[in-house]
Please model this.
Amino acid sequence: MTAADTTQEDAARDDDGHGGAHRLSRPRDWAWRRRIRANRQTYQVYRAIVATIGFVVVAGGLVAVPFPGPGWLIVFIGVSIWASEFHWARRLHEYGMRKLREWNRWVMSRHLAVRGGIALLTCLFVNTIVWVTLKMSGVPSWVPDPAEAFLHTHLAL
Model:
């Protein structure tokens, strides 16, 4: 058995070793990925690089989650990076997307007042995070003096 045969066999088997027990879509099989998989050492290095980049993106997204901005989107992008090479990450990505669709469906099926309440609670949460951050770190120096005075007077910063 050649190294290419072993690599193809490994590529055909799912990362969890079940050989297709899960019916998830495989990522695109571009020519450059086939060339990488043809050499076992290159393939292992490639997988390590994908794992590292995915980890950095997911970790950065998790740090950003409590702050205003696209924290969860960044996490999903990181999991998508992992999912390009790892079966367990494809399952996690599809699970997350399924839950996101269910949440969206549930919210959209509610009365407008309930959706408004969810939006209000979300805004309250984001504003609380911003207030705590400013309380702990102080008002940035680039904020104009009148705005800083307002923040100190009315928001107890």
